[in-house]
Specification:
The protein has about 290 residues and is mostly beta strands. The protein is built from two helices and 34 strands. Helices cover about 10% and strands about 30% of the residues.
Length: about 290
């Protein structure tokens, strides 16, 4: 039988009604020496005795959570619920991983970031700052989610994509390639943003948007009775779609609604200029990859 790699020191702490135990190394591995004091776990099932997984510093692992492989949980990080941290993954600082979330491969969750629900962060993905990855979202490959960004629902952020600032990616949306989604932008529905596209400001991309260059969407200045931006984007079937407040329709129907609502006033003129600019800017030619 393989020697256990740690034991309880006898020092305990109460953590919201759970008794956590400080651990101490029984054998040397990685950068751990015999006798080194580790973090806190609720039970031995939380930290595998096999492999090189570590729980260090004041990190806490409890519930049915598991840390295994060569994973490292340190700082004051918290892993709980039925979450799993494995492979060579890193969870540190004040990060939290909980629910049924999984962090594995060479992925890192740092700072005040949260990964929860059924979310998965893997490969060499990074989630840090105050970012949140939740629901059934996936962040993988070399993707990064940071700042106060959120990736939710069944959204996917992969390859070399970056989501940051206060941006949100949700629903069944996908952001991949070298795409960047930042500021207060929202990508949702079944929208796809890829290539080397930057989506920022207060852009709203949804429905079946297919955005793989900056000439596939355009946002107006703040106009209209709402004094807000309007987003025009290229759809899967090569149409220009419009998101204006709660209105989501194609550009022809949008023009008709503007005329009905505003007649010939200044708001109507501003929207008409935006419509014409979108028609000039947005490229509808070429194939859209599936």
């Amino acid at each position: 039988m393989e020697q256990k790699k740690y034991e309880f020191t006898g020092e305990t702490m109460d953590f919201f009604g759970r008794t956590l135990h400080r651990i101490q190394a029984l054998k040397a591995f990685s950068d751990i020496n015999v006798g080194d004091i580790g973090g806190w776990i609720e039970k031995e099932e939380n930290l595998s005795h096999n492999g090189k997984a570590q729980v260090c510093g004041d990190a806490r692992v409890c519930g049915d959570a598991r840390v295994c492989g060569a994973a490292w949980v340190g700082g004051e990080a918290l892993v709980y619920g039925e979450a799993q941290v494995c492979g060579a993954a890193l969870v540190c600082d004040d990060a939290q991983v909980y629910g049924d979330a999984q962090v594995y491969g060479d992925a890192q969750v740092r700072d005040d970031a949260q990964v929860c629900g059924d979310a998965q962060v893997f490969d060499k993905a990074l989630v840090y700052g105050k970012a949140q990855v939740c629901g059934a979202a996936l962040v993988c490959d070399d993707a990064q989610v940071y700042g106060e960004a959120q990736v939710r629902g069944e959204a996917q952020v992969c390859e070399d994509a970056r989501v940051f600032g206060n941006a949100q990616v949700s629903g069944d949306a996908r952001v991949y390639g070298e795409a960047r989604v930042c500021d207060d932008a929202r990508v949702y529905g079944e929208a796809q943003v890829y290539g080397k596209t930057w989506v920022g400001g207060r852009a709203r991309l949804c429905g079946d948007a297919r955005i793989f260059c900056n000439h596939h969407y355009w946002t107006s200045p703040r106009i209209g009775s709402r004094n807000d931006i309007t987003t025009f984007y290229r759809s899967k079937d090569h149409r220009i779609m419009v998101v204006c407040g709660c209105c989501h329709t194609d550009i022809e129907d949008f023009a008709r609604r503007v005329k009905e609502t505003h007649g010939d006033n200044q708001h109507a003129h501003d929207y008409e200029m935006a419509i014409q600019m979108a028609k000039i800017w947005i490229d509808l030619e070429g194939d859209i990859d599936e």
